[in-house]
Amino acid sequence: MTKKILLVDDRENVRVTLRDIFEGEGYTVVATTTGEEALDIIDKEKPDLVLLDTELDTVVPKSINGFEVCRQIKQVRKLSIKVIIYTGTLGMIDAVKARRMGADDYIIKGEDPAVLVKAVKKLIGDAKYGK
Amino acid sequence: MENREKTTEQLKEDLRKTREELAIQKWGIEKTLEGMKVLVKELIQKGEEAEKAKAQDEALLASIGDGVIAIDMDGRIILMNKAAQTMLGWHPAELLDKSFFETIPIEDEKGKPVPLEQQPISRALVGTTTTGHSYYYIRKDKTKFPAAMVATPVIIDKKIVGAIEVFRDITKEKEIDKVKTEFVSIASHQLRTPLIGIQWLAELLKKEKLTDKGQEYLNDIRISIQRLNKLVELLLNVSRLEEGKIEISPQSIDVVNFIKKIVDSLAILNSKKRLSLTFTADEPKIMALTDVGALQNIAQTILPNATEYTPEGGKIEVKIKKHGRMFLLTVSDTGIGIPKKDQGRMFQEFARASNAGRIKAAGMGLGLWIAKQATELLGGKIWFESQENRGTTFFVELPLKSKSIDGTKKLV
Predict the structure, then answer these.
(1) Are residue B231 and residue B98 in the same domain, yes or no?
(2) Which residue out of A108, A115, A116 would a mutagenesis test of the B interface target, given it has the greatest number of B Cβ atoms within 10 Å?
């Protein structure tokens, strides 16, 4: 059994790149486009970590955003799943908002995936359980 | 007492909340800073990459053997490579930001300055790409050299922002060209004299009593003389055209009859080849004021070419019609066609299609060049459409009234 990561991003190229990276690291990766689907998967598959983009409405308009998904996980369902907000918006207001919703980390999308991988490992460790 | 305890509890609670709030704010600041670091790192990386790309571009530009000069919309020189510097004798630093048109003069063959609006690079500024022009550049030390130049507009976001010119010193080519022209001229004139002698002797021999075998040989000799005559005529026309100064003296002729005669003679010549040769004219008579020698050169190239490059059993259609102030001659064949890769250069001197040798080994690649020069002298246009192994159609559009041109030599 390996640890499971759920990717929530409305851009396909981001999902493909991140899937490659984390599968390369040995994790099981599930990916989806909208906030609603994300909550569905969270309830059914219980991932160890959720990687959340903030804006999720380019493909399906009116999808609930990343902050709301985070609030649902942490404050409504009170699950022990780790949450990283992974966004293109650099700004303190968003970072503080993420923290209030219970996010465990807030990372700016950059070209070097090392920052993200490091943050994931810090939160849930390596892919295999018991390590 | 109770009240005071409550207040203490409340204060503690407030303090805890404030601490929590501060922790959140601090976290927010930390995360924002981390994000900034990521972005700054990427910006620096991108800057370094751009620097590297620029250095590569510059190295590439310096290594190009042709001269490269770029100007902005005001004609100021913004870039000049090493080859341009060597050829023009200027150091880039001396020319940078100076006006191209004021510092680098261009002259034509006769030593006259080329007017601004005709210079390739200023034409590029108004959106015209010029290729294959040759003029003379004047160096810093006032000496000059012939240069072939190509100028194109530089377009960014659909707007012309400047122009770039690539040029090459063609002193050597010019010399070779001159020697070649002289050679062709001398050779053709020198060939002509003995040929006339042979021709005259053959005519005399016709009157002598000859055996059957003798008659047969004489006939072969006369056919060979005819072919040789044609070749010399061709070479003479080439040298006349190369030297310029061709005279065009239009006279009134019926072009339908003119073309029909050529078609008829080709039908006889090719009687063994089982070609279907048809001629249609929209009108029984089309009178045109044209130069017979020039027209002869055009028709005697494209019509025989059609029969020569069409295999047995093929079809050739010759059509002629009036078209406004012009007349259009169309010659279509079902021949071997001209391969796509050769089509662009068919009107150049000594150009032969790569598949032409299969049919006719001895072509010189001069016919179409002469035809094009002759067409242009008459004020017309020549072009073709062709598909390899399917056939070719040549189009010649000529004015019904050509202008006369003064000159010293006529095309024959």
Answers:
(1) no
(2) A108
Residues 6 or more apart in contact with residue B169 via CB below 8 angstroms: B87, B145, B146, B147
- Its sign, for the CA torsion B154, B156, B157, B159, is negative
Give the predicted TM-score (pTM) of the model.
0.49
Confidence of residue B361 (pLDDT cuts 50, 70, 90): low
* CB-CB neighbors (< 8 A) of A91 in chain B: 32
- Report how many domains make up chain B: 4
Q: What are the structural domains, with CATH classification, of chain A? A: 4-111 (3.40.50.2300)
Closest CA–CA distance from residue A67 to any residue of chain B (Å): 14
Calculate how close chain A gets to B24, using CA atoms only, in Å: 6
pLDDT for B72: 92
List Cβ neighbours of B393 (8 Å cut-off, separation of 6 or more): B330, B331, B332, B333, B384, B385, B386
Residue B334: per-residue pLDDT: 95
Q: Is B31 on the interface with A (CB under 8 A)?
A: yes
Question: Does the beta carbon of B33 lie under 8 angstroms from any beta carbon of chain A?
Answer: no
Q: Which domain holds residue B34?
A: 1-59
Q: What is the interface pTM, i.e. ipTM, of the complex?
A: 0.86
